[in-house]
Amino acid sequence: MRIIEGAGEWRSPGEAVNDWVEHLKVPDLSVGTYCIPAGGVDDQSPHTEDEIYVVTAGRATIVTPGSTAKVGPGAVIFVPAGEDHRFVDITEDLALLVVFGPAYGSRAPR
Known about the structure:
Helix content: under 10%
Structural class: mainly beta
Number of strands: 6
Shape: globular
Distance between the termini: 31 Å
């Protein structure tokens, strides 16, 4: 067993556009926190792994090619591998607990 301290907690990205911290990585999954300040820009690109976001703080809209949804604390979002997605209209500092399966980057071309 392992307690993952700080997972899902808001951290200011400082001078950066946003903040990504990976807390745990094992072959079958990884867990991290992704933070974007209010009014910020989500500059991510599609991932090679499936992912689940849990909104722990803040409000925004998530946009994919097929849908748009407003999200806030408690929302759980599944994004399949390869699907373009981004958070827009970030009205409150956004903190996301992110779970990748398998681990982030493990399916990336070598």
